[in-house]
């Protein structure tokens, strides 16, 4: 019996004219890069939003596991460090001429406390409206919520304690010249201008910018200091309300006897609410939604 012969394999269909033209176009437009060239391209490509998200989320996971003592000491250090935002801005304000452009220069001093806090890895409440919110959005359970509430309570309380200690020390001692103290007073009184709604709106913008700063830092590499200075400079120049830096300013006014304690309460309540709204909803939630959509 004769074995059936296997038909020869059919030849692949010839490429269509459009595909052929596309291949020729790609071959002629793409550069012929070496392996080393392609490695350099990868190194210079910006990191993706998902990488930024995971960097910030993992940092938040670490912060949620820290002991209460570590959080408290770090939060106290941050509250004290934020006092140098008032000092930096006040010194520039005091010694610059009273011109229309004085705020453009003096506002640079406001960034000083934020540089100390961020580069010193100290716990600042407004940073944690983003950092520790991402673990909660990724794992929305009671355990993560309780850990977040514990961190927020400890960090906020110690930040405000540090701000109070710094403001009281500066107000009740002769560390600075009278001209500088007058500048501190003017800065603090400016922070008190505006009712509940206006302060809330200003605080939303401040919380938004601080959370954006934290989101940008993983991709900033050597430009970290520039990112901190630029965004916090805008907060100062725009008159936006920051709960900790603003607390130093207003508490100085209170300790100097130029405003009652009720004025501080009228400042801190809408400012805290606005900072949380700006950091959580406008940055944490939106960027988490962006990354979740990519995963999906």
Task: Record keyword descriptors for this entry.
globular; mainly alpha; Glycerol uptake facilitator protein; single chain; about 300 residues; about 75% helix
Give your account of this protein's structure.
The protein is mainly alpha-helical and 296 residues long. The protein has one domain (47-295): Glycerol uptake facilitator protein, CATH 1.20.1080.10. Helix content is 73%, strand content 0%. The protein has helices at 17-29, 35-44, 49-64, 68-81, 83-95, 102-106, 111-119, 133-138, 142-171, 178-191, 196-220, 224-237, 243-255, 261-295. Helix 11 runs antiparallel to helix 12 (224-237) and helix 11 (196-220) crosses helix 14. The radius of gyration is 27 Å and the shape is globular. The protein starts with 16 loop residues before the first helix and ends with a helix. The mean pLDDT is 85.
Short description:
The protein is mainly alpha-helical and 296 residues long. The protein contains 14 helices and no strands. It is 73% helix and 0% strand.
> Can you tell me the residue ranges where pLDDT is under 50 for at least 5 consecutive residues?
none
CATH class call: Mainly Alpha
The CATH architecture? Up-down Bundle
The global form is: globular
SSE sequence, one letter per element: HHHHHHHHHHHHHH
Task: Please provide the count of β strands.
Answer: 0
């Amino acid at each position: 019996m004769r074995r059936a012969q296997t038909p020869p394999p059919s030849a692949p269909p010839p490429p269509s004219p459009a595909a052929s033209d596309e291949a020729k176009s790609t071959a002629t437009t793409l550069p012929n890069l070496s392996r080393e060239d392609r490695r350099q391209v990868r190194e210079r490509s910006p990191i993706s939003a998902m990488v930024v998200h995971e960097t910030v989320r993992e940092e938040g996971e670490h912060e949620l596991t820290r002991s209460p003592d570590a959080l408290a000491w770090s939060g106290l250090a941050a509250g004290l460090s934020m006092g140098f935002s008032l000092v930096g801005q006040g010194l520039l304000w005091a010694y610059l001429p009273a011109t229309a452009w004085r705020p453009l220069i003096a506002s640079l001093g406001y960034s000083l406390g934020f540089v100390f806090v961020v580069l010193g890895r100290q716990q600042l409440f407004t940073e944690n409206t983003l950092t520790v919110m991402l673990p909660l959005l990724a794992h929305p359970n009671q355990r993560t919520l309780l850990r977040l509430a514990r961190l927020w309570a400890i960090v906020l309380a110690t930040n405000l304690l540090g701000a109070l200690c710094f403001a009281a020390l500066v107000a009740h001692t002769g560390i600075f010249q009278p001209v500088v103290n007058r500048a501190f007073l003017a800065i603090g009184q400016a922070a008190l201008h505006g009712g509940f709604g206006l302060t809330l709106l200003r605080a939303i913008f401040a919380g938004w910018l601080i959370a954006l700063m934290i989101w940008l830092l993983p991709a900033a590499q050597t430009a970290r200091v520039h990112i901190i200075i630029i965004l916090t400079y805008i907060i100062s120049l725009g008159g936006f309300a920051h709960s900790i830096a603003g607390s130093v300013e207003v508490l100085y006014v209170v300790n100097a006897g130029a405003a009652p304690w009720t004025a501080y309460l009228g400042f801190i309540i809408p400012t805290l609410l606005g900072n949380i709204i700006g950091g959580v909803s406008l940055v944490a939630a939106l960027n988490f939604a962006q990354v979740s959509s990519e995963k999906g």
